[in-house]
Structure formats: structure tokens, C-alpha cells
Amino acid sequence: MTTDEPSRGAARAGVREVARLAGVSSQTVSRVINDHPNIRPETRSRVLEAMAALDYRVNNAARALGTRTTRTLGIIASDATLYGPSAGIGALEAAAREVGRWVATAYADAADAGSVEGAARHLLGQGVDGIIVVAPHARTLPTLAELTPGVPLATLHGGLGAERQADAAALAVEHLVALGHRRIARLAGPEDWLEALARDAGASRALADRGLAASAGWVGDWSARAGAAIAAAVAVAVRTVDGPTAVAVANDQMALGLIAGLRATDVAVPGDVSVTGFDDNPDAAFYSPPLTTVRLDLAGEARRCVAEVLGHPASALPAPPELVVRESTAAPP
Amino acid sequence: MTTDEPSRGAARAGVREVARLAGVSSQTVSRVINDHPNIRPETRSRVLEAMAALDYRVNNAARALGTRTTRTLGIIASDATLYGPSAGIGALEAAAREVGRWVATAYADAADAGSVEGAARHLLGQGVDGIIVVAPHARTLPTLAELTPGVPLATLHGGLGAERQADAAALAVEHLVALGHRRIARLAGPEDWLEALARDAGASRALADRGLAASAGWVGDWSARAGAAIAAAVAVAVRTVDGPTAVAVANDQMALGLIAGLRATDVAVPGDVSVTGFDDNPDAAFYSPPLTTVRLDLAGEARRCVAEVLGHPASALPAPPELVVRESTAAPP
DNA sequence: AAAACGAGTGTTACCGGTAACATTGTTCGC
DNA sequence: GCGAACAATGTTACCGGTAACACTCGTTTT
């Protein structure tokens, strides 16, 4: 394990070294690095050459110290075992990198205000320029805002993205209605998650738009386990006269659990009841039966979200959500 | 959105302010912050009070600039849609935070050397003190080592953790053997992933230990889709005389896809063939049938990994892997 | 009792960029 | 043809910690 460091002795070059080699001042080097206007093209290229020759790399700590901005975005994420948030984080990282920002991620139990607060403190300590909350809890958002004065806050799948969440949920319901379903139940996410609210609101709206009653729904914590736990109750409802003939579930994982639970009680999907998911988890095509679900333009949502915390003008809107029809939905029995 | 910043005007306090309020030098404040010995308890508490009173927070950029260390670990992650890596990242973040480090994550397509290199450069630019590669590609590891002289490198689920990966895979095979299976096939991960190698090696070893032939296996890219794609071939093999009666799959998601594909070709699991997974994905209990799989002590592995890059003495070893028996395995037909 | 030591603290300079301001030509309007 | 505006570059100081070293006392050591 001999750390034979090639740079030993020859400390990494800084702006001053580059400046000397290029025959300019260090400030000019800085200008080139930061793409300032008013640099003679020839000077610029001389500097660039020098940077390449010395394998120059900016020192972010120094830059951050001088500018009081770290070019880093903090992400507060919930449970890494849920598909939605995980995929969201990946998309955010890509979007941040696209605009030259770094990300620092802190995981927290979204349902526990203390944990979220700890994550926020952790990120603030890091000096992030903004914080993005993935799948935020309704209650924690105000707390966060209070905790982080001066640091812009945005939410993926919450704030501005909420309409599209609702639209996507509506898409699922419309699909069920088109198949002939008239009594459509909902299995929503935890009531106090903005994301859950948006999805459920979208489903309700679609029902109302079609003149259908929004029957009472169930609530789960996004996990497959929760879906399974609710299955017995769903089975009872389905077997009831005038019971639902379809369930719009707020994410794919709960749908998976629900279907598993229904199978255990001999309720056939989609024979006895149709089920839709939400997310288009890559696994959903291989559930049994393959799950009909809706998909958001995650990359687009992430870009919008990054632009928002950065205070950039809204770029192109994310693509509209898509319905992915598979085999968990059919005409009502 | 009136950003009524309470700290406007009253710029955030630094060590010097704290020092003045506590009646000591800034260096003493620094010593308190860093838990240096040789501080009179009374002095320490005076400083701590002053820090609290001023709501002092260290400026990491300044610290990094002075010490040439950022207390940040870089994580190079592959696909956010796979359960294993996602969960691994979450565990690493927690482990890093436990020892007062930050993490910076960069996602890369592990199969694309260029992409991994880009991620590494990104992290190096950030000035990370070490890099942890989640689920590394065998070939990219040397490249990375070359690219990052002086920056310690470790792998989650690769290097030192490999034995436990192998042990876990062996556990699955042993379970199948105990059920009476003698012809056990394998569906491995991509050949050049260290993790895939370790798991497959463990399975092979277990077979050899039992005096069983390691029949040829299949390979997939960890995704459910890959499992489904291979299903037809597996079905043919299973129906062959002397064909396998069980398949040990290298992760749960591929197992899911495989089972879905087998169902399509009327091969029953576990009736005609038993299937085991790897990871204990929280969804696996709700697959159809619920998946028998093995689980690693992810938090422990992450801690070990963080200690390794940090050059800390190895702490407690991760707990041994566990077998989780569910319904995808049964005695051979 | 002088010398050596260690605990506890202060001084100074430095890390590597960049903001702010100063300084040169150049070009342009009238 | 002269001052104004501007383009291109240099100077200087500063961001906020900490390393390195210096210094002052009590305690030991010999």
C-alpha cells in the first residue's frame, strides 16, 4: 500500500502558477476559469494551455471561501428502499451536474421531524446553496423553511410538480373509467405527504370530472408491506355489492403488495378487481400480473426543480405524464 | 416570498467573534471545535457558551482550505433503479454521517468506463478525501485507481466485502441442497462486476463443497427485464432430462423477472423449479411466489467500507449474511 | 535549585481563489 | 481632436479556519 504519490513535492498547481506560466495575472486566470467576458481570445487560449499543461483544477474550498457560495445543492431524501425517491435522487444528481452543481445528499426518515431537521442541519453545515426535499412531508416543509432562512428550498414531486402528479393520477383513473369502471377506490400514500396528497387529489378530481363518487379510500406508507396489510379490507369491499371494481394505488410498490394480498384472499386481478400503480417502476412490468401504471418525466421534473432552487428562469416544462397499460386492468366483472 | 433574513447585516459569526465574546484567542476556539486536549474545562465551556450564543457554525470551506481535507467522501453509484446500489448508498451516507463525514454522490453507468471516469473527475473536483465505488465493475477499478492517485479508494460489495457476498450466495445454495436439489443452475450478474463474481463464486464453491457439478449458468444485467429475457432458455433447460431443478439468482430483481418469464412458459415456481434471490429487497416478500433470498448486513458493510477509505482500524465486522426462506423454494419435483 | 518538561494559551502567516478597485490603452461621438 | 465610454488586464486585500511556532506558568527531574 505504498502511496507513491506522483504529486508529492510538486504540490498541485494553483491560479498563481498557471498565471506565471501563461504570463498573465492570477486574476486573469480566474476570469478565464469563470468565463468572464472581455478576455482577448489569444490570452484565453494561452491561459487554457497553461492550465492543461499543469493539470490545473480549481480548489472548490478556496472558491467557496471567497464567493460564499459552494455550488452545492443539498438533497433531503427519504427512505432509500422506495423506488420513487431513489430514482428522484438519481435524476436530481444528473440535473445538478448538468448545470455545474454538486449535490450533497442526506437521508432522513421523512415522518420524523427531528430526523429531517438533523438532515437539514447537516446540509447547512456543509454550506449548501439550496435544499431540495424529495417527497416532502407536508408538516416538515414549514419547519424546514424556518430552519433555513436565506437558503432557497424546493421540492421534487411536491410544489410546482404537484399538478403533474395530479395529472398522472388522473390519467390512471381515466383509463379505468374508459374500461367501464364506475366504482373506483383509492389506496393513497400517507396523508401528510404532499406527494400523496397531490396524487390522491388528481384521482379524486378525475372521478369528479366524470361525475363519479369518490368513495372512501385506504392509506398506506408506500411500501409493499402496507399494500399487503390493506388487502384483506380491500377484498371485503370488493366482494360487497356496490363495492369497488378497481383500485387506483398511489405507487407501484403498494400495488405489488396489494395484489399479493388479494391473491391470498382469492380475489383475482384484474378478474375481480383492476389495479393501477404509479411510478412505472422498472419492475412493474414483471409483477404478476404486469402492472398498469403511470410515469412521470423524472429527468424533466428534476431539471425544473434544480432551476427553481437556483432561481433560474423556468426552462422547458417536463413532458406530460404517460399512462402505461399492462395487464392489471380490465373491464369490470 | 419575502426573504426576511434575520441574519441580514449581522453576518454569520466566525471564530474571531466567538473568541472575542469568550475572551480567548481564535486559536483556542478552533481547539475547542476540534476537541483538542489541553484545554481547561472552564475555558472550553466558556467557548461553548459563546458559540451557542452566537449560533456559531464552522465554515467548511475555510476549514477545507486550511487543512487540505474536506471531510467529504465521494460515492460513485450505478443505476439508481436497482435496489442493491440504492440501498447501499443510503447505508453509506448513514455510516459516513456517523463518523462526521459528508458524502457527495455521483451516478454513473458502471458499464461505461467513460461515464465512471467522468463521475470520478466530478468527485475529485469536489475535493473528496476518498472514493467509494458501489458495486464496481472489475475493469473500471484499476482505471479509477490510476485516475485518483493519493485518494483512497474502497468498494462496497466488492473488495473486503466479497467474502460475505460469497458466503451469502453459498447460503442460498446450501438451502437448495438441503431441500434435496442436486442440479442447481445459476443466473449471475454481469461477468465483469466484482459483486457478480463474488456471488457466483460463492454459489460455485457451495456446490463444489457438496460434491455437486456446477452446471453452466446464465448471465443478466441485474434487471428484472434481464431475468425475463433469460426465462425461455431456463424453461427449456428445466424441461430437459437432467436439467436443473433450481436456479440461484444473483439478485431479487432478476429473480422477479425470471419467475414472471417462467410463468409465461408454464413452468411453475417452486413446483417445477425452485428459485432463490439475493438482497432481500423489501418487495421480495410480495413477489409471487414470495421469494426465498439472502440478506447482507448492509449497515455493517457500509461502516466497514467507510472505515476502510478513512484508514481507520477495522471496527466490528458486519453481521454474517442471513437466509430468508419464503415460498419460491421447495423440494425438487 | 537549576534544568527540563508539559499544560494551557496566544501570534502570525497561510491555504487558493475572487471581489473590488485601479490602471492602461482604444474606440467613438460630436 | 478631445473627453467619455469601454475593453482588457493588473493590484490588493480578504474570505474563515488552522498549522506552526512562541510563550508563560506550574511541576518534575536530577
TrEMBL record, chains A, B:
Q: What is this protein called?
A: LacI family DNA-binding transcriptional regulator
The UniProt record lists the HTH lacI-type domain at 13-67
Instruction: Tell me the keywords, alphabetical order.
Output: DNA-binding, Transcription, Transcription regulation
Note the InterPro entries from the entry. Answer: HTH_LacI, LacI/GalR-like_sensor, Lambda_DNA-bd_dom_sf, Peripla_BP_I
Q: Which CDD domains does the UniProt entry name for this protein?
A: HTH_LacI (cd01392)
Q: What's a Gene Ontology MF term here?
A: DNA binding
Superkingdom, taxonomy of origin: Bacteria
